[in-house]
Amino acid sequence: MTSNPAHHALFVLSNTLTIVPYIFFLSISKEQTLFAILAFVLYYTFKMTGVFFLQTLPQFSTSALLTISFWIGTVGALFGIFSMVWGSALLPAAALIGLSAAWIPPADLMYRQQAQLQERSLKNDWRWVLIYLVLLLGAIQLNGKWQAVGLFTGYLFLFISAIWQSGKINVRPRGVWQMLKQVTGKQLLAYLLFFGLLFLLRTGRLLKSNTLFEWALFGFMFVFALLMLTVGRRSQFWRMPFYLNVLTFLHGIVGNFLFLFGSVYVGARFGQAALTSHVYIPYAIGLFVSMTFGVFLEKKLGASTIFVHLSGLILCTWLFCFDAMLPIGMAGISFFNGGLNRWLGQRYRMLTAETIENRSLAKYATQSKGSLVHQFLLMGLLFGLIQKAQLPVNAIFRLSSTSGTLHQETIVGVLDPAKWVSAVSIILLFLVAGCYFRKDLKQNPLP
Q1: What is the distance of C-alpha 158 from the center of its chain?
Q2: In this structure, are residues 202 and 98 in contact, taking their beta carbons and an 8 Å threshold?
Q3: What is the rounded (10 degree) CA torsion for 341, 342, 346, 347?
Q4: Residue 48 contacts by C-beta under 8 Å, 6 or more apart in sequence?
Q5: Are 79 and 92 in contact (CB under 8 A)?
Q6: How many Å apart are CA 80 and CA 241, to the nearest integer?
Q7: What are phi and psi of 277, to 5 degrees?
Q8: What are the angstrom distances between the C-alpha of 76 and each of 90, 126, 139, 149?
Q9: What is the pLDDT of residues 216-238, one digit of tens each?
Q10: What is the pLDDT of residues 41-77, one digit of tens each?
């Protein structure tokens, strides 16, 4: 077995690009300037929908996807550094970093699967991983423009290191251009539709525009109803096992519930200062423990691993509903959802009928759909609860803060039912999925 020099830079990029820049762009969006809001919306929309753009390509190679992801991220990091002297540079930085955050995780999964097939060992030096994480977290703590400079300088170093370690610096741009020329019209239209709806939703919420928010919400409800009516016909063409689609979809829902709703609820219930102690630190602890010790636990559990993860997610989602246990629930959800993600990756890798690229893309596209569906349904639920409480529609834009005309009791009175409805729905979905999977497992044992 040959060895690959290192993989830790790509590992850190894959696991932090969807979280750390999100925290940064969200923090500057609270300035409530059009420029800061647009930067967050660009990052978030490209991050959430970028994987769907890849589905517009009939075929592509792992090398080409890694190459373009690295270079897009590198250019985005450079724009971010330049934003200290040219403020407008933050907009292209947000878009490019968001697109890189959407493409690097599936590209990393493809890269690791190819390495296993070629019997190459990818080495993660945990000392370097820790150094990278400390640098990124340290940059987030800086003040003013130095925060952006520190964060994007750290990511620039990571992108350059990943290019060097993976050896993708020698891939010619011609292969990337050939990949992008294959875009198909039908899938591109679907991508643009989801991109537009999410852009309107996030922009409307941050700009506190009732019109934009309602357009996005009702537009999604129409698309969602159309998809539900045609799901029976479309399911005949699914190439992935049904249980795998369902569990991957639920994985995306849990991720959105954990970080997006968790941040809003904690900010309203305990104040913005509690986000670090109640959301960010428990999330980081759960994820780190899952990445380091979870692997050894799964080896001992064997075939029962998936049921332990599902049971843990059900228990910790229930704990999340009680304020005194919320940080423990957050850490537990992060831990077990990380384990579920690993288990799903192993299942997709065993689908030998599909190419590595198709397997990885199917996984990340399905979990992104779960995250998006939960986000829009959650907004619809909050919209209904606000109407029931006879509050103005624009109250939905002030749920994450106890300042202004809304009192904390009013905000929590809306968010608390939403928390219980979301949590109970997720628990029921996992129970049904677990029962169905156990039944299917008896007929088709896992290899």
Answers
A1: 20
A2: no
A3: -30
A4: 102, 198, 368, 371, 372
A5: yes
A6: 41
A7: -80, -30
A8: 9, 26, 17, 12
A9: 766 766 665 665 555 445 544 45
A10: 889 888 888 887 777 776 677 788 888 889 899 999 9
| 364 CA to centre of own chain | 9
Asked if pLDDT for residue 156 goes beyond 70, the answer is yes
Query: Which residue's structure tokens are 């875009």?
Result: 183
Q: What are phi and psi of 402, to 5 degrees?
A: -100, 10
For the record, the structure tokens of 94 come out as: 């947000």
* pLDDT band at residue 445 using 50, 70 and 90 as cut-offs: low
271 token code pair: 């104040």
Q: With DSSP H G I counted as helix, E B as strand and the rest as coil, what are the percentages for the chain, rounded to 5? A: 80, 0, 15
Specify the 3-state DSSP secondary structure of 122: strand
CA-CA distance, 310 to 428, in Å (whole number)?
11
For Cα atoms 165, 170, 171, give the angle at the middle one, nearest 5 degrees.
110
Higher pLDDT, residue 149 or 349: 149
**Are the beta carbons of 400 and 432 closer than 8 angstroms?**
no
Query: Contact at 8 Å (CB) between 202 and 40?
Result: yes
Amino acid code (one letter) for 69:
S
Let me know: does 1 contact 121? Beta carbons within 8 Å.
yes
- The answer to whether residues 98 and 53 touch, using CB atoms and an 8 Å cutoff, is no
